[in-house]
Design brief:
The protein has helices at about 45-55, 70-75, 75-85, 115-120, 195-210, 225-240, 250-260; strands spanning about 5-10, 30-35, 35-40, 65, 85-90, 100-105, 105-110, 125-130, 135, 140, 160, 165-170, 180, 185-190, 215-220, 245-250, 275. The protein is an alpha/beta fold and about 280 residues long. The protein has one domain (about 5-275): 4-Layer Sandwich (Metallo-beta-lactamase, Chain A). The strands form three sheets. The protein has a seven-stranded mixed beta sheet. The structure holds fe (ii) ion (2 copies).
């Protein structure tokens, strides 16, 4: 049978068995869909390029899409662009926003650590949109994701500073997922799922008009959302009849263990080097 899709995790918080691959707090995935190739997110440093080399993946000419502007998804852009050469970079206009995490009263900068002009000089042709769009046949970016369930409220720890110095919760409007429309249903790839995993899946159904969600991979943010959100998410996931559940990155080990225990027939341990071929 001819394969439709190849998904490979290039950057994750955990490293797999392949010798020499590097883990870091971040996310990047390489995709092939028919003849189309795409990088979704860039990781934090040079791990994506190092791991791609070790996994035998040629990055030249591969376009890049970004899930959102956080450093752990965008910091590796300059290293990637050195390999891809000039390529389109699909993202939301707010991907360049200054943003912070707030821990014990202290603010830490967690936005994109690279300058737009520098990235453009390296060959990034930014293609920015707030809307859902099909960047190649059957390959969708969700655009902004409305929060559709009450247990997926924005995190109080992620903030922006307004022009008059007010600290406000960051809605992370630029958060988006990637959707591949396969014959048997949707394969949804999450960056950090700041808008919520369930809200993202509901939006993916709406955007594509396809009901069946075959698989979900990537960062779920369930490691930061608390017990209630995890419980509600697992309950909601049962209703989707997903065959492949490959959470990674900001899912964290406790939430991943819960997902594995509650949905054992669907769960795949997803780390650097994990391949899913459908
Ligand atoms: Fe994030
Ligand atoms: Fe993240």
């Amino acid at each position: 049978m001819r394969r439709e899709m190849r998904f490979v995790t290039l950057v994750d918080n955990s490293a797999g068995l392949r010798r020499g691959v590097m883990a870091e707090h971040g996310f990047s995935a390489y995709l092939e869909f028919g003849g189309y190739r795409l990088l979704f997110d860039a990781g934090q440093t040079f791990a994506a390029t190092r791991n791609a080399d070790l996994l035998g993946i040629d990055l030249s000419g591969v376009p890049i899409a970004l899930s959102h502007g956080h450093y752990d998804h965008t910091g590796g852009l300059s290293a990637l662009l050195a390999r891809t050469g000039p390529v389109p970079v699909y993202a939301h206009p707010e991907v360049f926003a200054s943003r912070y995490s707030r821990r014990e009263g202290a603010l830490r900068q967690i936005g994109i650590p690279l300058d737009r002009g520098d990235l453009e000089e390296m060959g990034a042709a930014f293609d920015l949109s707030r809307q859902a769009r099909e960047i190649s046949p059957g390959v969708w970016l969700t655009g902004e994701i409305p929060r559709a369930v009450d247990f997926e409220a924005p995190s109080e720890d992620l903030v922006v500073v307004s022009e008059d110095g007010e600290i406000e919760v960051d809605p992370i409007a630029d958060d988006q997922a990637l959707i591949l429309v396969l014959k048997r249903g949707l394969f949804v790839i999450l960056g950090c799922a700041h808008s919520g995993m369930i809200s993202t899946l509901l939006h993916a159904q709406r955007v594509t008009g396809v009901e069946r969600i075959l698989g979900v991979a990537g960062g779920t943010h369930l490691g930061y959302g608390g017990e209630e959100r995890l419980k509600e998410t697992i309950a909601a996931l049962r209703s989707f009849e997903i065959e492949i559940l490959a959470p990674s990155h900001c899912t964290g080990s406790a939430a991943a263990s819960a997902l594995s225990a509650q949905l054992p027939d669907r769960f795949i341990y997803n780390c650097v080097g994990t391949k899913i071929v459908l």
